[in-house]
Amino acid sequence: MSTLATPTSADTFEITRTDTPVPDAQREAALAAPKFGTVFTEHMARISYSQETGWSNRRVEKYGPLQMDPATAVLHYAQEIFEGLKAYKHPDGSVWTFRPQSNAARFARSAHRLALPPLSEADFLGAIQALVATDVAWVPGGEETSLYLRPFMYASESFLGVRPSLEAEFLVIASPVGPYFAGGVRPVSIWVAEDYHRAGAGGTGGAKCGGNYAASLLPQQEAYAKGFEQVCFLDASTNTYLEELGGMNVCVVYADGSVATPPVSGSILEGVTRSSILRLLTDAGHEVSERPITLAELKAGLADGSVSEVFACGTAAVMTPIGRLAGEGFDLTVGDGTAGPITTRIRAELTDIQYGRAADRHGWLHQLA
Ligand SMILES: *Cc1c(COP(=O)(O)O)cnc(C)c1O
Fold it and tell me: How far apart are CA 321 and CA 191, in angstroms?
């Protein structure tokens, strides 16, 4: 069931509050219409690692710039990982996050793949809990608003030799965010990239690391120049199977109500939103399969109407209907180009759980304040 984090984990963080707190009126103004990733709370949680001491110096301190030696390993070899989750304010004023144990476990897997030191679930959750408790006044309360939490870890040793860093920093920063779709959920247009890939077999596609995002930026920019909002990548080996967008998983809904999504087989990031949606779809009686989906099959299904909805999913936007899918030599409308009924219903079910408007029957919520 939903419980408070082990009290010991947050208790071990030493909290040093800023000596220049933001005036209430200024904070309220910042919370009124926050643009994603532009406004940050007054504090950050932090733990430092060295090979000799392990993880130590658990603290919450004033949010501010990091000082780095120009030879800091992350700046040269991109040894960095991150997470993204949200804190939601419920109608009674309590603050909750969603399946943070899954993010902690994924963070540990990402650390392993990037040869960074493992961070325990207690430290991951404790840092989030300590930060949100300190900056609880920064959790917005408006419809579909939340406090976006960004845990990350980077190689902090000053050394240009190529080997895993002997030092690392783990931080959590927090940013109040407004509704992803101001003015209602709106379908996006997708360009299917056939000349670029974001991840290959045996690579880092299954890890949440900054390097994967760096690789996705040029294809994203080129798609944008063609008039599309997002890119969908295909598998790097055969260029035939759907993988995912640069930062969201993808699911296909068929006219018979069944749903399919590509399996997370190493080059696809295992989304918490994806897994939650598959659960809710299964609960609602939909036949759900994780199976390879070829672009050719999807194009045929859109053309003959057997595919009725396509959506992307991830923490930031929850579920984003895809209204148009195009690539070299094709340009197809999904359904009638608007948000489909299954996408709309499951999105409402999931956000109702996150915002405390519906019963948390799977025990997905975790109280922070
Ligand atoms: C973070 C991320 C997702 C979505 O994961 P969630 O846990 O649902 O937020 C999907 N794909 C990529 C590449 C990601 O980095």
Answer: 14
Please tell me whether residues 274 and 331 are part of one structural domain: yes
Q: How far apart are CA 82 and CA 116, in angstroms?
A: 12
Q: Contact 175/34 with Cβ under 8 angstroms?
A: yes
> How many domains is the chain built from?
2
pLDDT in tens, 93-135: 999 999 999 999 999 999 999 999 999 999 999 999 999 999 9
pLDDT beyond 50 at 1? no
Answer yes or no: is 144 within a domain: yes
Cα of 278 vs centre of ligand 1, distance in Å, is 15
Q: What is the pLDDT of residues 61-76, one digit of tens each?
A: 999 999 999 999 999 9
Q: Quick one: residue 54, left, alpha or beta (phi over 0 = left, psi -120 to 50 = alpha)? A: left
For ligand 1, atom 12, name the residue with the nearest CA: 247
Q: How far is the CA of 313 from the centre of ligand 1 (A)?
A: 8
CA of 280 to the centre of ligand 1 (A): 18
Q: Where are the beta strands (DSSP E) in the chain?
A: 14-15, 43-50, 54-62, 80-82, 85-89, 95-98, 146-155, 167-177, 188-193, 230-234, 242-245, 249-254, 259-261, 288-290, 307-314, 318-327, 330-333, 365-367
Range of the domain at 70: 2-178+356-367
* Protein residue closest via CA to atom 15 of ligand 1: 247
* CA–centroid distance, residue 222 to ligand 1 (Å): 21
Q: Look up the pTM and report it.
A: 0.96
348 lies in some domain: no
Handedness of CA 17, 23, 25, 27 (dihedral sign): negative
pLDDT band at 185 (very low <50, low <70, confident <90, very high): confident
In a domain? residue 267: yes
Q: What band does 2 get if pLDDT is binned at 50, 70 and 90?
A: very low
* CA-212 nearest atom, ligand 1: 13
Residue 217 confidence (pLDDT) above 50:
yes
Ligand 1 environment, Cβ below 6 A: 84, 208, 244, 247-249, 269, 271-274, 314-315
Give the length of the chain.
Answer: 369
CATH classification at residue 104: 3.30.470.10
State the amino acid at position 199 in one-letter form.
A
